[in-house]
Each structure stands twice: as C-alpha cells, then as structure tokens.
C-alpha cells in the first residue's frame, strides 16, 4: 500500500482549543505510517473550516505552512457538520486513493487508523469505526443515543450501531457518494446504501481534549430527525395506522352513544365531547406537522442548491 495516498478529512467548527494538539498527534501518526511504508509520502490531513468564528482558519493556515502533511479548505460560511464533511471528502477524493474521516476533538482513537488500513489492505472499501462501549457517556447521553439507533432500525434504516463519522472509504466509494444529490445529508445512512465490501473496527472513544461539544441537545435532536425523515416514510405509515385505529374507535363511541340515547341514558355535560375534540385536533396537528416535514424536504431537494461553497483551498496555493 506504500504508493497509496491517504487523506484524513477533519471538519472543524470553532476548534481553536484542540487544533494544535490534534495536528501534533496526527503528525506523529502520519510520519509513522510513511516510515513504515504503509502509505505514500504524498498523504495529507485535510482540515475543513466550517465557517468558524474563532481563530480556527488562521491556525489551519499556520499549520499548513509549517507541516508538509497538512492542508485545508475553508467554506464560505457555516454549513453544518455533514456538509463540511462532504466538502472535505469530495475534495480529498481528487487527490487520494483512500480517505478517513474523523472529528477534530480527539475523541476518536487515532491508533484505530492502523486497523482500518489493515482492513483496507484485506479488500474492504468501507471500514466503520465503531465505539465498543458508552461507559464514559452520561446516563442521558447514553439513553438518547441508544434510543436513536433503535428507532432508526425500527423505521427500517440501515445504520451501523454506535458508529458516528469515523470511517475509511476508498475513492470509488466516494465517486458513488457524489451521485447522491440530496440536500438533507445523513452520511451514516447513505454509506450503507452505497454498498461495497465493508468491515468494522472497534475502538475506545475518549474524552474531548478541550473546548465544548459542537452537538448540544438541540442539534442532536435536529440531526436525529433529519436522519429519520430523510431515509424512511414509515412515520407516514404510522400516522395512517393511527388514523384507522381512531376511526374504528370513533365508530364504537358513536354506537355506544346511540345505544345510550335510545335507552334514555343521555350523556350529561360536555367533558367527554370536549376531550375528544381536543384529542383529535391535536392528533391532526401533529400529523400535519410530520407531513409538513416531508413536504419541506421535498421543497429543499427540488431547488438543487449547492450544499457547500469552498472559499479557500490551500492545496491550490501549493500547486501554484
């Protein structure tokens, strides 16, 4: 594999607190891989600046000037983790034979790269980095994360359990990924759809080195909702099923009310009626809201707007 070029793609959003340490550790890893003739000396670490508001891009430029194994691109504005990752992957595939994506916070075990490359040498086109436990997560984080994967499986989405975006892919896989034009990106669900031979490497996920998580609860919920509504229409089927059940229940209530009316036992008060009206109205609003989510996604998809815009590319400067 010594002639194969490896690119490590790392999306960055306000990562000034961790970037120097990340580059320091990755420099050691890249040097070792090149010295052992596992990868080509043309291999790189590609930082993707996702419209950061701090000194992230200045640090990337500084690292690129000092270290030969580092380069970067900067998006014109913040487009979110998935779009930033996509920008990095599609940029890297033009230069590399094999690409690994990981986060900047050093929670992904860098040493797992060696195992991923071994799986690649054995013929795998996709290697998923999967955490072997969630012991370090809070009870809330653990419960919500595991619940997310179970819901995705329940709705029929093919997803690798406990896998985030730490993965190895080959150039031909990314050539196929480029054909997926959806705006609402959920890469964890797209890669299993692409196919090709895949393997799993288990690793121990560490604590964040510094800074704050870029995925607070609000973003996590939005990300999970995007994953569900972008890959399955089962919620629509669920709504239809609930509608049938309520229709049957309403017929039974109607028969019950007519029997009471005929026997002279009329219902006194409006409690039951008002509760029924409010319940059905709320159910209708929820149903319309879910349908609206799908219509909204159709609206976004049919416009075919670009998913990201690259403002600066340090490799273009190197080539000049």
What features would you describe in this structure?
The protein is an alpha/beta fold. It contains eleven helices and eight strands. It is 51% helix and 15% strand. Strand 2 (44-49), helix 2 (56-66) and strand 3 form a beta-alpha-beta unit.
Can you tell me the CATH class?
A: Alpha Beta
* Number of distinct helices: 11
> What is the count of distinct domains?
1
User: From the coordinates shown, what is the CATH architecture?
Assistant: Alpha-Beta Complex
Strand runs, count: 8
- SSE series: EHEHEHEHEHEHHEHHHEH
CATH superfamily: Spore Coat Polysaccharide Biosynthesis Protein SpsA, Chain A
**Over the alpha carbons, how many angstroms does the gyration radius reach?**
25 Å
The 3D shape can be described as elongated
Give the biggest beta sheet.
Answer: 8 strands, mixed
Q: Taking all residues together, what is the mean pLDDT?
A: 80
Strand proportion: 5-15%
End-to-end C-alpha gap: 28 Å
Low-confidence stretches: none
The assigned structural class equals alpha/beta
Query: Roughly how much helix do the residues carry, as a percent range?
Result: 40-55%
């Amino acid at each position: 594999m010594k002639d194969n070029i490896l690119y490590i793609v790392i999306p960055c959003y306000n990562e000034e607190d961790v970037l120097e340490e990340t580059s320091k550790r990755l420099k050691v890893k890249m040097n070792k891989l090149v010295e052992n003739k596992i990868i080509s000396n043309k291999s790189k670490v590609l930082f993707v600046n996702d419209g950061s508001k701090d000194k992230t891009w200045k640090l990337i430029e500084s690292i690129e000037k000092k270290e030969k194994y580092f380069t970067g691109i900067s998006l014109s504005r913040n487009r979110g983790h998935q779009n930033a990752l996509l920008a990095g992957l599609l940029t890297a595939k033009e230069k590399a034979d094999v690409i690994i994506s990981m986060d900047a916070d050093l929670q992904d075990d860098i040493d797992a790269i060696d195992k991923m490359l071994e799986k690649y040498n054995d013929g795998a086109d996709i290697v998923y980095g999967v955490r072997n436990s969630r012991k370090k997560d809070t009870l809330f984080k653990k419960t919500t994360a595991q619940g997310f994967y179970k819901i995705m499986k329940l709705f029929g989405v093919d997803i690798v359990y406990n896998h985030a975006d730490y993965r190895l892919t080959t150039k031909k896989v990314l050539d196929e990924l480029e054909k997926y034009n959806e705006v609402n990106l959920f890469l964890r669900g797209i890669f299993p759809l692409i196919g090709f031979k895949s393997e799993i490497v288990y690793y121990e996920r560490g604590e964040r080195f510094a800074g704050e998580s870029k995925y607070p609860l609000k973003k996590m919920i939005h990300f999970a909702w995007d994953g569900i509504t972008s890959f399955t229409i089962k919620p629509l089927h669920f709504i239809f099923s609930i509608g049938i059940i309520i229709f049957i229940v309403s017929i039974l209530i109607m028969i019950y009310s007519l029997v009471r009316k005929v026997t002279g036992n009329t219902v006194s008060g409006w409690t039951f009626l008002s509760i029924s009206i409010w319940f059905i109205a709320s159910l209708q609003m929820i149903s319309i809201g879910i349908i609206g989510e799908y219509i909204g996604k159709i609206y976004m998809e049919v416009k075919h707007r670009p998913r990201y815009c690259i403002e600066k590319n340090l490799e273009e400067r190197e080539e000049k």
